[in-house]
Amino acid sequence: DIPVFEYTPNLIKKSIVGTGHAHKEQVAMMVGTLLPAAGAVKDDAADALAVAICHAHLRCHQKIISQMERKQSLGRVRT
């Protein structure tokens, strides 16, 4: 099985640009800034790369949160 993840356009834009109501041009510009090796990319490619960046950021944050929750549960006193 291959896991499938879905993200709303606003979440993708917010994770890339900082606002969920960013324009396509702003997203493409930030993708170019975050991935300079990609060079100038067309709109569809910029969208795909933005989704990949969003996914990577969210997965990283989820991993950190899970680790913190695990540490907190280990430190709790059970009565």
Task: Give the topology, please.
Blueprint: H1 9-16, H2 24-34, H3 43-75
Overview of the molecule:
The longest helix has 33 residues, at 43-75. This protein has three helices and no strands. It has helices at residues 9-16, 24-34, 43-75. The protein has one domain. The radius of gyration is 17 Å and the shape is elongated. By secondary structure, the chain is mostly helical.
Name its key features.
mainly alpha; 79 residues; single chain; elongated
Q: How large is the share of residues in beta strands?
A: under 5%
Rg from C-alpha positions? 17 Å
Percent of residues in helical segments? 55-70%
Summarize the biggest pleated sheet.
Answer: none
Compact description:
The chain is mainly alpha-helical and 79 residues long.
